[in-house]
Structures
1.
Amino acid sequence: MTANRPHPRPGVLDIAPYVPGKSTAPGVAKVFKLSSNETPLGPSPNAIAAYRAVGEHLEDYPDGSASALREAIGGAYGLDPDRIVCGAGSDDLLNLLARAYLGDGDEAIYTTHGFLVYPIATMGTGAKAVAAGEREFTADVNAILAAVTPRTKIVFLANPNNPTGTYIPFDEVKRLHKGLPQTVLLVLDAAYAEYVQRNDYESGIELVATTDNVVMTRTFSKIYGLAALRLGWMYGPAHVVDAVHRIRGPFNVNGPAIAAGIAAICDTAHVERSRAHNTRWLAWLTEEIGKLGLNVTPSAANFVLIHFPETKGRTARDADEFLTKRGLILRQVAAYKLPNALRMSVGTEEANRLVVQALKEFLGKPA
Ligand SMILES: Cc1ncc(COP(=O)(O)O)c(C=O)c1O
């Protein structure tokens, strides 16, 4: 190490940088990006109009407390706007929670195939990221509870999880909460909650409302189609909200995002269309890809995890190369300890059909 220059805090250089999904396929005219779980229907037209209108006033600072947006979210979900904090994507909020509650020597638990922002946010604070084992690509409450030590300060749980698409029922979330010391903050990341169509699922609103150590994070990047604007929100106990407000950037949400977010959340018909599209094509993809002899992890979100054999010429890497050449961009997930799988976002009908057809050809099946 060169002594004579600034050095980041311990842990920072141990972080493997987050690698976003690919968005290009060299030499291919028409590209279908199915690598970042974006919505194929795009945002509400009202959100686009609201975004454009703010473009006339880029000289103005946004409202630093995003109060109109918090009111809109509160109205849509029946929540107290004072218990909502908005952020530049839920990434921002996950990082703020880590900064507020973790420090050197602390530990945060996530799950083996859990969303990678959790270990990155954790290690950035000097704390240790502890991976709890999963069962069948699904969070395992017993394993999480077994990983708790006196140093544990946060448990991060994506429900449903990215990149597996699996979820745990609300009873299991409650059992997890009950088993945690009250001093541990349980962060329920419900980025894909709007897509879930399961009777035993809850995003966590009730648990936040009735306890003192649970926070739920949400995003406008998925079903609302505003990923480019970076907009997310969290709902938490007043004392957690207070802590996050103290360290967040004073204008951490930009004006166009606030305006578009309000319009998006009010356009319930558009959200319903996006959900219906996803429900239809998620089931179709799971079935059709399964028929090709590939295992697909049952997903409650807007993507599927497809498992490939280790046979030469048939691996996930081989499939990725084959699909990319045809302009079909899926996501490699080796960084999630899933080297034999690819994650595919539910796309337009055209994209979904093209992927199934291309996988057929890749596997040498008759057309
Ligand atoms: C589980 C999960 N949480 C959070 C995020 C981050 O979303 P945002 O765009 O709001 O930062 C993602 C995005 O992929 C995700 O999959």
2.
Amino acid sequence: MTIAQRQQALRSEPSETLDPQNWDDIRAQGHRMLDDMFDYAADIRERPVWSPIPDEARARFRASLPSVPTALKEVYREFTDAVVPYATGNVHPGFMGWVHGGGTAVGMLAEMLAAGLNANLGGRDHMPIEVERQIVEWMRSLFGLPEGASGIFVTGTSTANLMAVLVARTAALGSEIRQHGIGGQGALLTAYTSKAAHGCITKAMDIAGFGSDALRNIVVDHNHRIDVAALRRQIAADREAGLKPFLVVGSAGTVDIGAIDDLAALAKLCREEKLWFHVDGAYGALGILAPSLAPRLAGIEEADSIALDFHKWGQVPYDAGFLLVRDGRQHRDAFAAPAAYLRRETRGLAAGSSWPCDFGPDLSRGFRALKTWFTLKTYGTEKLGAVIARTCALASYLEARILAEPRLELMAPVQLNIVCFRYRAAESCKVNRDLVADIHESGIAAPSTTVLDGRLAIRAAIVNHRTDVCDVDALIAAVLEFGAQRAGPGSGVLDVEPSPPLAMS
Ligand SMILES: Cc1ncc(COP(=O)(O)O)c(C=O)c1O
């Protein structure tokens, strides 16, 4: 076939583009979808927080891979019928489980715009990367890190913590380990965090090749903050045994109860001991936006790296994790990997050095920065700080309600926005586990559970900007109602005194 014949043949075939044949139709459909999602957020209180997925709805998602088209309208109907009613529920103000942000209409719109641009932020010279760089700069100055600090968006803090361990590893062993593996020297490295730290730190040590045994989980004080003296003793003992301490991970908001380690003391210790100081600030780090909380994060400005999530207290829609590293060169040394097909030029689209792919494992990367940029610009840090402070005030109100209610027991001091408590009952663990599932299924609220000193606790983490006094009251009412149902009449130890406040230094 000649070139002319090929050209003719291709021209005579129908185009295979995925663009709509009629843009007006998709425009109308798109506007409906947008309106529906605004209504979803605006009317969220009319819905249950969460609903169990009926077998029939689940079965719809066991269908075989479609080989022929379905009208967008039909696909959308499936979404509204079978996905929307059974979503996680964290848009709802009654959602208080785990640590989930509520998202915003602004973040949703920005996510739509990002998808429209379909930018790949792995590298190259385009404005979306400048948006990400803008946020890196904002975070650098917010947390008081020096010029030359670097940052990058990732899925979440689990990944950001893993990357911090990798940066600390390369800093400790030199970039040769990227070729040779951690070897004998690496096998001697030990890291330190508290017993209250998030499990992803252990996982990071495992994935980084050290093994989770190389992580020392140091005891905590009565407020769940790392015992710095015990940490110092453990470091000395490990050095004595010929091991090489290299990393301390402090927590700015522990997952169980929201404790903030003494970051200034950890920073000092790390300086003296020449250790990498990483802060897991998954949700707590953004507490720096609330003037009442910021002083409790003192010392974070001395961190070598900070991990945080904008999708938690920052209310940016999932996902928007972030890693900030004090020394951008060390950050780059851990991840940059030259390749002919990623050559940097002095002009054209491939211009610019240091692309985001030099600061993490991902080459293809979405435009997470846009929804974060829209959120920060549209609301401003003062408003976001006020939202954060209010979640803490609501947690304090929940604490007060628990302390005033003899049938309930506060299980840990309330330090930020997380409240752990239980319904008093003979078989307390079982009763509380069951009543939390009852509450989920009722659609009234969605707390989660944790175990504190071997005792199961109901855990309410107030993260969502929509949560209000009525939602806290509804949670209490539901715990009392389902607790009584589960534990039987006369339960709730009605004759005991209300719990005294737990110690807080
Ligand atoms: C203290 C802490 N660290 C790490 C994580 C993990 O963050 P992500 O779920 O974004 O990976 C969480 C999650 O709640 C957390 O609370």
